[in-house]
Design brief:
The structure is a homodimer of 331-residue chains. With 331 residues, chain A is α/β, with parallel strands linked by helices. In chain A, the strands form three sheets. In chain A, strands 1-4-3-2-5-11-7-12 form an eight-stranded mixed beta sheet, with helices on both faces. In chain A, helix 3 packs parallel to helix 4. Chains A and B meet through helix 3, strand 6, strand 9 and helix 11 of A and helix 3, strand 6, strand 9 and helix 11 of B. Chains A, B: It is a single-pass type II membrane protein.
Chain lengths: 331, 331
């Protein structure tokens, strides 16, 4: 059946020629509107426009990587699963201080691979030096937040760079390993790494210093997660903080469409939903979720200043402030 | 000469009996006033009333101490000078998180003795457990701020407990060792410990993330300290942050009256002045004071809440929040 026959058939069924002009206009509007609607939704779907999915391609820059034995650990059992710690960061006066503090802590952990992912177009040289100096296995990435999200009321910080790290882990991570998101200003008791290391699907534990309840934790009955104790439900299925769970890489790779949405406050929930996770699959850690081994500490912000140094050209203050500028401490 | 002869002599000199009643009253007021003034100032001096010195005796409680080889360090050269790190702290939601983070970092440093001094009448059990678990050499003290200072406009926080630690170091520290003050929320690059270890008098370096200039640093010319680059001069001779210097213990013990005043913002200056220090004696570290190896980071405060838990008696949330109460995270 050609399109002319199809039109003739439609003419017969709807008796278009007998219709009033008004009815014809309404019908045309309905048909044209439906057509536009279908085109637009399909376009959004094709371009990745599910809630929180980016419409434009994201910029991802791989800077450097080292796969090596942690130089600070005397003996590393190569049968031990690797923990891939993902730390998103961005240029600000506290960046080098935070990453130095956290990176040094990670050198005490066996079989770790630290992925530092900057919200930036390029990798910062002081961070490259730090990663090289610490002697850890590491990967250094950069992925800037798409401009469109900077204009939102609640800005989804740290998503583009976590997504870049997620892609790296999916492509390079060992199946026996574990993925863990740890922010640069968090505080962690290194015993938590022992808790998460043998995760088979997704494991969870409490995170201290969160919101209204001063903690965010799974509610556990008979070693099963039955809900969440968190001051901000916000319609979330998984009311957890980013530092409150780890994911087995083999399990991660088996999922069809792993993602993290660009929706502030719903990054964790969106990510865990994309893993097709059920409450009953969650592995309970930290002594039945009764101990706190990680805290959502936040470091007070310092303004990024421009310093006037006319009177300090002949002393140490000139090279000192040059170093500070490289570290992003001043403009 | 008896007092009667003395009065007669005074009568003769001043011709008191010839004076008008008015003159006699004025003279009596002057003499009595001078007498009261001398008594009061002497009393303040006798009771320790120099500026910033406490009028009442301070409460100091020694809780526990362990002198041992750092269990995390494979080989410790016992000829290496010990670094005595003094960390004042106080009960608040972030306390255990901060001390866990800092304490773990210190386990990476050779020949270190950590003095945790609480602003409190008693030592907190979670801190005792932490110190025992870390495997460091340590001393745990408690010394509450005298009540009178809590009512001041600018409260001199962390003085009573630093003074208690200072006394402990003067009585127990090895002469070859070094004293260093490091707050629980500071961030430190552990290479700084190598810089300070061989200090002979007082050594100094820049501290990042301080005040108007984003740094506080000695100004160095020809490897000599000639002044300070600090946004808050405030009439201080030594414009430095508490984390910006280390002191040789032998040098400390040789000084007559080592003290730290209860004057907010002038603790460092008062302490260094009491060491009879001159600018020319200061040892310049951190590559001529051009590198930043310690930052005055500050952790955002969380409110200390009372949680209602009527609905959570049968799950993990009860023991979890009991633990949080012990850690000082909630009331």
């Amino acid at each position: 059946m050609g399109w002319q026959e199809w039109v003739a058939g439609a003419e017969k069924v709807f008796q278009i020629s007998n219709m009033s002009r008004q009815k014809r206009v309404i019908m045309a509007v309905i048909i044209f509107g439906s057509f536009i609607y279908i085109v637009l939704t399909q376009a959004v779907h094709i371009l990745g426009g599910a809630p929180g999915e980016p419409v434009h391609p994201e910029i991802r820059k791989f800077c450097s990587s080292a796969s090596r034995k942690n130089v600070n650990i005397e003996y590393e059992d190569s049968n031990l699963p690797v923990i891939y710690v993902v730390t998103p960061t961005y240029r600000r006066p506290e960046m080098v201080a935070e990453l130095t503090r956290l990176g040094q802590t990670l050198t005490m952990v066996k079989r770790i691979h630290w992925i530092v992912a900057e919200d930036s177009h390029t990798c910062s040289p002081p961070i490259t030096s730090l990663l090289d100096r610490l002697g850890l296995s590491y990967t250094h990435l950069a992925s800037p937040m798409p401009e469109v999200y900077r204009r939102e009321k609640y800005v989804p910080r740290g998503v583009s760079n976590r997504r870049a790290a997620l892609q790296w882990v999916q492509e390079n991570g060992e199946d026996t390993g574990v993925l863990y998101f740890l922010d640069d200003d968090n505080a962690i008791d290194i015993r938590l790494f022992n808790e998460m290391r043998l995760t088979q699907t997704v494991s969870m534990w409490p995170v201290g210093l969160i919101g209204e309840y001063t903690v965010s934790s799974p509610v556990v009955k008979g070693n099963q997660v039955v809900g969440f104790y968190d001051g901000w439900p916000a319609g979330r299925k998984f009311q957890v903080d980013m530092a409150g769970f780890a994911v087995n890489i083999g399990y991660l790779k088996k999922q069809k469409k792993v993602t993290m949405p660009y929706i502030a406050g719903h990054e964790e929930d969106g990510f865990l939903k994309s893993l097709n996770l059920n409450l009953k699959d969650i592995e309970v850690k930290a002594d039945g979720c009764t101990n706190i081994l990680v805290w959502h500490t936040r470091t007070a912000k310092n303004p990024s200043r421009t310093l006037r140094l006319a009177h300090h050209q002949a002393t140490n203050i000139k090279p000192l402030t040059d170093n500070m500028r490289k570290m992003g401490m001043i403009k």
